[in-house]
Amino acid sequence: MKEHFQLTTADILKRKHFEKSIVIAGEEGIHRIVKWVHVVEVTSIRNLLNGNELILSTGVAWKDNVDLFVSMVKEFIENNAAGLCLEMGTYMSEVPAEVIDLANDHHFPIIVFQKEVPFVEITQDIHSVIINQQYQKISDLENYSQSLNKRLLTIETYEDILQFIFSALDVQIIFRLKNQEYEFVPEISRHEQISIIAKLQEAKTQPYGHIASTPIFLFGQEYAELVVYSKDIPISEYDSLILDRTATALAQHLLRDLFVEEKKRVEEFEWLRGWLDGEHSLEDIYEYLVENGIKPKTSDVAVIITKLIPVKEKLSQDVTYLKLLFRSVFEQNGFAVFFVEKRNEITFILLNNRTKKNLKERIKKAIESIQDSEFIRQQTSAKLIIAAGKFIQSLSEVHKSYQTAKETLRIQQKMTNKQIYHFYEDLHLYRLISQMSRHTDLHELASEYLQPVIQYDQQYNGKLLETLKAYLECNGSKQETSNKLFIVRQTLYHRLHKLENLLGEDFMEHEKRVAIEFMLLVHDYLSASQFKKANQAL
Questions:
Q1: From the record, what ranges are coiled-coil (predicted)?
Q2: Are 407 and 401 within 8 A, CB to CB?
């Protein structure tokens, strides 16, 4: 440690008026720090001591009472006094053995003057040293603070601040951002790190003079912790003040970094939103890509939207892991990845970084890898649905892929087929239904074809709608339909006869069959939409 001078009992023994003094007890404690001097000639001083005082006395208050003398020395020890200086000859001729034994047991220095000494001159001398010492501390502390504040203007990382406090104190510096590993300046072995961390944990429950720590708060929350550790010399008050000033500087620097990072994130978010909305020219887009170290090999691009449907409250951490997972997997499959997060949706812009044009195959492979990942299989706080827009061959038309990805997501949430992902180009009739829903009353249209069947099922639980779907999916094969529905052929014949009565004997003829199949999709689309609204209302 770069020791800032602290006056000790041993230092005082070298000063004027102490030339003929003798340490008669507690010699092992002569390195105690002295912060002030008191002249004591009373029988109780407990409420007047703050610790580290050197006591001067003639012993007049307890000269004839050994028990009182012992009691006084106990008070000095309990209040952490630096030592007791006794003038012998005037009122006392010797120090009782009980007092000497007590002082030796507690390493409490007892110093005797062989002749009368001027207490006033002693207190003036020692107080002048202490006051000058305090002034020097304040001056040095101010110089340190000014130097650190100047450096804050040019310091780029918090590691530079840690080096600065190390240079000032020459002790072990330990720093930790919340929920991260401890950092050590200077770097030490892993074994030494573990030993110091253990001492640091102990110091949080019981005082330990060789460690001082201070939390660093940002926005009212503990953001980091700064610690100094001295192996040989206890941490001084000056060291603690340096620690506090450094913690303040670190808080300012970390806050500035967060502000810059947040500003950059907001600017990037706004730029990417502009890209998704078609606001940037091709030249601007290429300039942005170059700034991000990307030289695209093609102009092929696709947008996918990942929606998280919360199951539990712990979603923020999942979103962070999910972004890392998606970026890693899609980059492995040849895409440069940009993303925009908004509420429970993450929009990914996937820029093809390979000469091959097989975007769909690689996106499917990436999504399936994500599905099979341990994180997705084990996490239960949210369910995922992924919607991929149409593939675009121009970076300035990303907005077209984005709009179709949003359309895919809307449709996907209304489909009974609840697989995790869909591509816009595979939705076919659902796209047509989505477009029709904006201009046509689909309920009325579907009812025109299916209402008799729906009413029959509601009245008799006849499962005719389920049978109709299966029969059409099996292309009119009665054996496949009965197997699919797990019913006997006779039951199927009975249901088909009911369907003929309700829909007409020609319901399997080509044009009518196509119309019914289409209306079954419309019915599923509307049913899913109504189910979603009901859940939202709950």
A1: none
A2: no
Query: Residue 380's pLDDT is what?
Result: 54
CA distance 314 to 309: 12
Q: What pLDDT does 538 receive? A: 38
Q: Are strands 421-423 and 382-388 parallel, antiparallel or unpaired?
A: parallel
**117 and 167 within one domain:** no
Residue 313 confidence (pLDDT): 54
CB 296 within 8 A of CB 336: yes
Eight-state DSSP code of residue 234: P
The two three-digit tokens of residue 172, written as one number: 């072990």
DSSP code per residue over 459-511: HH---HHHHHHHHHHTTT-HHHHHHHHT--HHHHHHHHHHHHHHH-TTTTSHH
Across 8-12, 225-229, 319-323, 363-367, least confident range: 319-323
- 3-state DSSP assignment of residue 22: strand
Q: Which domain holds residue 461?
A: 442-537
Q: How many CB atoms lie within 10 A of CB 47?
A: 6
62 with 68: CB under 8 angstroms?
Answer: yes
Picking from 243, 258, 273, the residue at the C-terminal end of a domain is 258
Residue 204 lies in a domain: yes
> If DSSP codes are grouped into helix, strand and coil, which group holds residue 236?
coil
Please indicate, yes or no, whether the overall pTM of this predicted structure exceeds 0.90: no
- Which DSSP letter does residue 33 get? B
Closest CA to 385 of 401, 370, 365, 402: 370
Q: Which amino acid, 201? A: Q
Tokens for 7, please give them: 């006056």
Q: Who's near 314: CB < 8 A, 6+ residues apart?
A: 381
User: Which residue type occupies 318?
Assistant: D
**Closest listed residue to residue 241, CA positions, set 356, 372, 138, 91:** 138
For residue range 242-289, list pLDDT tens digits in order.
Answer: 999 999 999 999 888 888 877 887 889 999 999 999 999 999 999 999
Cis status of the peptide bond prior to 118, with omega within 30 of 0: no
CA–CA gap between residue 337 and residue 330 (Å, rounded): 7
Distance CA 417, CA 332 (A): 29
Q: From residue 283, how far is each of 279, 292, 296, 329, 396 by CA, in Å?
A: 12, 14, 13, 29, 9
The stretch 406-414 carries a mean pLDDT of 85
Shared-domain flag, residues 326 and 243 = no
Q: How many CB atoms lie within 10 A of CB 503?
A: 18
* CATH number for the domain that contains residue 116: 3.40.1390.20
Residue among 118, 53, 113 at smallest CA distance from 86:
113
What is the pLDDT, as a whole number, of residue 535?
Answer: 46
Average pLDDT of span 377-383: 67
Alpha carbon distance 4, 238 (integer Å): 7
- Two tokens, residue 399: 């907005």
DSSP 335-398: EEEEEEEETTEEEEEEEE-SS---HHHHHHHHHHHHHHSHHHHH--SEEEEEEE---BS-GGGH
